[in-house]
Amino acid sequence: MRARFDIVVSGGGIAGLSAAAVFGSQGYSVLCVDPTPPVMAEADPTSDLRTTAFLQPSVAVLELAGLWERYKAHATPLQVMRIVDAGGDQPEPRVSHDFDAADISEQPFGWNLPNWLLRRECVARLEELPNVTFRPGIGTRRLTTRESAAIVGLSDGTSVEARLLVAADGRNSPMRQALGIGVRTTRFGQKALAFAVTHPVPHENVSTEIHRSGGPFTFVPLPDRDGKPCSAIVWMETGVEAARLAALPVPEFEREMNRRSCGLFGRLTLASRRTVWPIISQIAERFHGQRTALMAEAAHVVPPIGAQGLNMSMADLTALTRLMTPDNLGEAAPLAAYTRQRMPDVALRVTGVGMLNRASMLDARPLRDARAAALNAMYSAAPMRRTLMQLGIGVR
């Protein structure tokens, strides 16, 4: 006999696990599946060494999910975001502007945590919820939708039925493809290296984004490691250059990263292995189908600039929790309203982050000079700076 759930979540990344936690906390019966079991230890050779900064608006839905209480003890506040242009002849700062959260709020912009730790805490939360079933190692293969339910075929040969299917199964979402929903994809010819470093100069909870060419080199604050200040680094470069850097022996790689960092935090020492991630922008034609909601990278993908990616996913989840009730769960009207609510904001952010990324990639010196002048003019005006901060974190 086919098992029935209120909600099936396809995808066990941070977004999918968070969705299972929030709906489970609301009392729905939930099944969450993912073909790849989550890696929950930093030392694991396949762990995700990237970090996530949860911006202020994401905290409410994380509290609703019972996750924020678990995250707080591990979170590093992000009080200041610093933009540095180093596009001159030598890799050294020539324009620098600080965005201080105190100018618009009594709280930090957000709180930074390692992705592997987020997965660990999400899984621990799901284990506390008796109405949530998490089946790692099982994926979604087939989808049949009716007015009354979604019938989801799983990779173990069984099928399950749900009033609502939440597709949080990544940029190549099999559930989105099963619904025939197209996507618009932009490729930048870039990849990102993600790793951790220690350094002698404290970061003082400042996230620092250094622009030269190829893409930003970003420091994101982490707790101290072995008694030394520590930061996560996301270094975006052209695909060819990223591959070259990833293959360098550690001493040569450290020389390259110290040159690119402009010495802002003193000499950097590599404190983890290096991982490489492709960079694209992508947006789905719509964020729903019959009995199905698309969220996270199944709906939208942006380059890792301005901490937008997972926070857009949390905004998806916030909208779904507000629109769905036990009486209308998975019905056509709230699903159509979900697309209407989320599409304008997502489209704006996908376009805006794409433009910022292209500006950060500029290689020709005259274009880099023009970028520095434009950044200086924009960021020097206090009203413009406050507006950009409010837009960036999603606070009106």
Please write out the topology.
Elements: E1 3-10, H1 14-25, E2 30-34, E3 51-55, H2 58-64, H3 68-71, E4 76-78, E5 80-85, E6 95-100, E7 110-114, H4 115-128, E8 132-136, E9 140-145, E10 150-154, E11 159-167, H5 174-178, E12 183-198, E13 206-211, E14 217-225, E15 228-238, H6 239-247, H7 250-260, E16 269-270, E17 275-284, E18 288-289, E19 292-294, E20 300-301, H8 309-323, H9 332-361, H10 365-380, H11 382-393
Parallel strand pairs: 1-2, 1-11, 2-8, 5-13, 11-19
Antiparallel strand pairs: 3-7, 4-7, 5-6, 9-10, 10-11, 12-15, 12-16, 12-17, 13-14, 14-15, 17-20, 18-19
Helix pairs in contact: 1-4, 1-8, 2-8, 8-9
Pathway: Cofactor biosynthesis; ubiquinone biosynthesis
Keywords: FAD, Flavoprotein, Monooxygenase, Oxidoreductase
InterPro entries: FAD-bd, FAD/NAD-bd_sf, UbiH/COQ6, UbiH/COQ6_monooxygenase
